[in-house]
Amino acid sequence: MRTDGQQGPEIWIRGPVAAPEPGPQEPAHAAATARRYSWVGTHGGAGVSTLVAVYGGHDCGRQWPGPDDPRSVLLVARTHASGLAAVLRALEVFRLGEVPPGLDLDAVVLVADAPGRLPRPLEKQVRLIESLVDVYRVPWVSDWRLGDLSGTPPRETEPLARLTGATTRHK
What we know:
By secondary structure, the chain is an alpha/beta fold.
């Protein structure tokens, strides 16, 4: 601050500063890179391998990502009672800091365990999970059950497809 009787920050006193000369600029997206994800199943049969085949990313199975794997984690579970309980246990492990250092929990991905609506008690569990973390839902896909992963992700998964950078054409 100046002591010669003038008030205010020096920039107010000096006046405008000349704009820098325009030069070649890189596009804003050139420095950004797509985020990579490690998919971690919270229980056996969660659907990790299928999701990796459809949406890309690293398949960790039921293990935490290793040092060379992407640090951004997507937890995966089925929408049955034991699957939702497994997600809640995994969220508690994250909350307590009992995961390998440097892991970042991005979201939970819930894969339908059957066609149709969830029973009320299961829907209540999903709402609880949604109050704790971002949740992406994947509906029942009959083709996936038959092993046909060649199609595009279902329309309901558009937010997940955007997150992971997967193709966004829909069935």
